[in-house]
Design a protein that fits this description.
heterodimer; A: 301 residues; alpha/beta; Rossmann fold; 10 helices; 29% strand; B: mainly alpha; globular
């Protein structure tokens, strides 16, 4: 496994009586495109804010590039190597596109004018236009330009596709993939747009109520997670839900649909005992996995 | 570049306050002479100052109330600079803008009341009193803005001034600490004496509140 660029261990943060983070663990491999998933209020933005030194955790630790984010001095050095796109996409409305680019350059000695020009052209951003006059989609592109052009080793994007039209989303997704592939930049992005995540991420984590429910390679998840379906000849066995690896069981008359996260062969063998027909196996989408985990979490709450 | 940003964010408010102050001074000049004009002018100074208390104050962005909208605050705080640096830039810009405004208003006062200004020392003394008093209110306002929104910050800043005035009027403040008395009834323009003890007290108050604000800003969650 490649070196982790973000490491979070047992992170806890409460706001009053509300636990925003409740022992969150995470490993983001260097060079990965990492989808950070969760419902609204799951703790995604709180995690990102902690990584950027904007809030302090009550317990646990977080490291980026192997350095703790809690020390304000260290955090400044870390932020110099990070590109950040905020959820709100709010920039300074009294500046122009060119003005904010000139504003940003001195903070980042490694600022790359070639990338700046490339993304100005690619995103069709007019240098002299006031930021106040830009649409949210254009502001998203501008923030992306600012995040990328200083040669960031890590991009942290908080809901980058939120509120954008499909054409802009598609363009940004393509660019993110290109940045990761061409420059080796690690991309850590939060989202609840699951199809977007599935399109570009190679790693995902699902969190809910401040806890990590699932974390791993997307391809591995897709291999491990399967839906098994069978029509039983007799009454369906009642013990299926207790088998190792079974995440959920749906019954519809004599038809059983079982979602498994591992041990699929053993579960299929057990299902075969109640059926004269073959057990069918279906791949599952990230959305199914997400809903399964977040749904279970909601019920247990 | 933080200096440029701070200036760009405050320039219009500063210009507006200056214009408002200048207009009221002109009205005062037409309407009154002598001590009445002096009273009006001092009211103007306090009113104009409180209207924008410190022109966006030192606390803007990093010291902003956590209840306020996020806006571009997160973007600013994610830049590779310390909060202390952001805070200091805002403070210095705010102080300079306020100082420039007060200097211009003080010059207006001297022009308005040429008979009261008997020496340059008196004029500079009165300016020092005005600036030190303003800095104290400015620092209190900055501190308030770490946990109040804009509306409450202005109201509570006004209340702080009224409180200082009340203590001064009831003679509960030791003479050496009574900057308000030095601002009004015992102005250097009237007494021909610079009240250094009151000036120093006001400056110490300002430093204490600025330091408290900086500590809050550095520790707070955004």
């Amino acid at each position: 496994m490649s070196e982790a660029i973000i490491e979070i261990d047992g992170l806890r943060k409460s706001f009053g009586s509300h636990a925003a983070l409740d022992g969150l663990d995470l490993r983001v491999p260097a060079g990965s495109v990492f989808g950070f998933l969760g419902r609204n209020g799951a703790g995604k933005t709180t995690t990102i804010k902690h990584l950027l030194g904007l809030i302090k955790a009550d317990a646990g630790s977080a490291r980026i590039f192997g350095r703790g984010v809690d020390d304000p001095g260290v955090s400044v050095g870390i932020r110099q190597r990070i590109g950040f796109v905020t959820e709100e996409k709010d920039l300074y409305p009294y500046m122009t596109v060119d003005g904010i680019i000139r504003f940003m350059r001195p903070f980042f000695p490694g600022w790359r004018r070639d990338l700046e020009q490339r993304y100005l052209d690619l995103f069709d951003l007019p240098r002299n236009k006031s930021i106040a006059q830009l649409s949210k989609g254009m502001r998203s592109k501008l923030m992306m330009l600012l995040a990328i052009s200083h040669g960031a080793e890590l991009l942290i994007l908080d809901e980058p596709m939120d509120g954008l039209d499909p054409a802009v989303v598609e363009q940004l997704l393509r660019e993110l993939v290109a940045i990761a592939a061409d420059q080796g930049t690690t991309i850590f992005f939060s989202s609840h747009q699951l199809p977007d995540v599935e399109q570009i991420a190679d790693h995902v984590a699902i969190i809910d109520r401040g806890k990590t429910l699932l974390c791993g390679e997307l391809d591995d998840l897709k291999v491990r997670y399967q839906r098994l379906s069978v029509v039983c000849s007799d009454e369906p066995p009642s013990d299926i839900g207790r088998l190792d690896g079974v995440e959920s069981v749906r019954r519809n008359g004599r038809m059983l649909s079982v979602l498994v996260s591992r041990n699929a062969d053993a579960v299929a063998a057990r299902l075969r005992q109640c059926s004269s027909t073959a057990v069918e196996r279906f791949p599952v989408t990230l959305k199914e996995v997400f809903l399964e985990h977040v749904g279970n979490s909601s019920c247990s709450g | 570049m933080l200096w440029l940003k701070a200036w760009m964010e405050t320039r219009w408010k500063a210009a507006w306050m200056l214009l408002a102050g200048a207009l009221i001074v002109l009205v005062a000049r037409r309407a009154a002479t002598g001590l009445l004009a002096m009273g009006i002018l001092l009211s103007v100074l306090v009113t104009v100052f409180l209207a924008g208390t410190g022109i966006e104050t030192a606390s803007t962005r990093p010291g902003e109330s956590a209840k306020g909208g996020e806006g571009s605050k997160l973007f600013t705080l994610s830049l590779p600079v310390t909060r202390a640096r952001i805070f200091c830039v805002r403070t210095v810009i705010g102080v300079l803008e306020t100082g420039a405004l007060l200097l211009l208003l003080a010059v207006a006062a001297w022009l308005l009341l040429p008979s009261r200004v008997e020496s340059v020392d008196d004029a500079l003394g009165s300016l020092a009193v005005i600036v030190s008093f303003s800095m104290a209110v400015y620092a209190i306002s900055a501190c308030l803005s770490t946990f109040c929104d804009e509306g409450w910050r202005i109201r509570l800043s006004g209340l702080a001034v009224v409180g200082i005035f009340g203590l001064s009027a009831s003679h509960r403040l030791p003479r050496g600490l009574d900057i308000f008395r030095s601002l009004v009834s015992e102005s250097p323009l009237l007494t021909h004496r610079t009240p250094w003890d009151a000036i120093v007290s006001a400056c110490v108050l300002a430093v204490v509140f600025f330091a408290a604000t900086l500590m809050i800003v550095q520790k707070r969650d955004y």
